[in-house]
Amino acid sequence: MPSPPPFAGAIFDLDGTLLDSMHVWQDIDVEFLAKRGFSVPPGYGESLAGLSFRETAEYTISVFGLKEDPEDIMQEWNRMAIEAYSHHVPLKPYAKEYLHYLRRQGVRLGVCTALSQKLYVPALLNHGIFDLFDALVSTDDVSRGKTFPDAYLLCASRLGLPPEQCAVFEDILPAIRGALAARMQVYGVYDPAAEDKETIQAVTRRYIRDFSELLPPQ
What we know:
Strand order of the largest sheet: 3-2-1-4-5-6
Shape: globular
Radius of gyration: 17 Å
Order of helices and strands: EHHHHHEHEHEHEHE
Largest sheet: 6 strands, parallel
Number of strands: 6
Strand content: 5-15%
């Protein structure tokens, strides 16, 4: 018999962790900035890692000197992304199987994402996994992004569990540091868009290429 998971709750990031979606935001960056006469500068995407949606809009306004309101930019990004998340963004390999496995083991499941509710709900519904989760948290629900522990702690609270009994699955180092600050068990998940893979391997409990590595042998 395989050992049960060493945690009572599992909290999942979406972009780059459960969802193979990082290309969506790269495409949106290209289209959004091209409309304003800019190209995507080197390091722009990395600078956004761990920021909330509003923080990303504010950063973009600052970098490019835009005379636009963060709310208007967020609404434009949402319109561009809703179609993709509702119909076209796939799950990472074996993600659905692993979620069902954890549910069978009695693990409480949560989402902790920088996505707005307008994006994460359609994505979860599209893949038939919305009802698997006991708690759904966005950085819109807290005052700081995922480089801080706030959103993870809120998710643990909504799961009814202490932070130490929760695992977090993340793909980027800034968010991993936020989860570590929340005193949670952190697992790194490979995504080709993520950087600092060696550091991620060093600071996480385990680093996986895909969720098949955590499933029991067939």
